[in-house]
Protein: cysteine desulfurase
Organism: Dyadobacter psychrophilus
Amino acid sequence: MNLKLPVYLDNNATTPMDPMVLEEMLPYFSDKFGNAASRTHSYGWEAEEAVDMARENIASLIGAHPQEIVFTSGATEAVNLAIKGLWENNREEKGHIITVITEHKAVLDTCKHIENLGGSVTYLPVESNGLIDLKALQQAITPDTFLIAVMYANNETGVVQPIKEISDIAKANSILFLTDATQAVGKIPVNVQADGIDLLTFSAHKLYGPKGVGALYVRKKNPAVMLTAQIDGGGHERNMRSGTLNVPGIVAFGKACEICAQKIASEGERLSALRDSFEKQLLELHHIDINAGNAPRLPHATNISFHDIDGEKMIFEAASDIAFSRSSACTSATLEPSYVLKAMGLSNELIHNTFRFSFGRFSTEQQVDHAVKVISKIVKEHRSERNHGHHKVV
Ligand SMILES: *Cc1c(COP(=O)(O)O)cnc(C)c1O
């Protein structure tokens, strides 16, 4: 019953590899080292076969055809390929993109790049629960719009956008729909057919696979999506992403997807029960807000603001017990409040006291109870110090 500390509650940042995934990938670093593009000997065939099998498991998890999967180094590269590749392919015709201010930086910074190249981008706001307003989306569409990019689920809050409604609007206006589903795939059911998705990005290290491998789903039919490669040389991956395939990484990504498919329902239930119990216990502290608590959310994540505490101090005090994430990022010397929570209307002061806790496959009830105990103690201490007027500066 020994608890390994600190308890890891930051699965939205990255997940630990599943030991079964590691076991599956190891031989591809040693005995099975072949290049999947070598067509003249058994080393190559063996690697190609392993990649084919992985591609099937990965495609199957999102309801895609294996040939619609383009391997990349991760979701960031997949987003870059999707947005820049579409822009380059059709820039003579249309140049407007609609996205959302709460997207991951991978999307926001790539959109900025397109603006620098002469494109135009509309950044939709969100409501206080983190959801976009579908009427605002409808109104943002112009005859020049070629792409709507809305993430499936948010990495900070877990908010799940109304994907089917968004894709219906895109389709009715003959606009392509890209979703960054990095936080959703493997955690909640995602299906490119049922959801009407044209392009989708995801990443192995967010679903118990290794870092450095991900994929872009590119629809082949109704419509056939065309994009210009951003990395040339050799014509791998249907000419969309050249370079020798990362065979061990891809094998692991495939195994990770296979396991997710098996566990998605049971883990969703188990983790939402853990998350709900965590929230319920913390609510007993009073003066805390569960951000986007009334919106559709991922089952395993929560974003909580604690009133009347010192967020900076809490991080230090909790560090040996809990690994979690603060909704502010240190950029050079200043503490930048989260733009996602800002967009939802939280004050800078409160954002500094706001934290993300994300559970995962290896989270246990015992870990959650320990986290509740540690946080409760810290919050109570901070509040009692405030009430007694000793404002200790750390
Ligand atoms: C982690 C993450 C990314 C980046 O993925 P990488 O594979 O690390 O490049 C993109 N979007 C979202 C929503 C993420 O959570």
Remarks:
- The pocket of pyridoxal-5'-phosphate is lined by residues 74-76, 104, 106, 151, 155, 180, 182-183, 203, 206, 214 (CB under 6 Å).
- The longest helix spans residues 247-283.
- The chain has two domains: 7-15+264-387, 19-258.
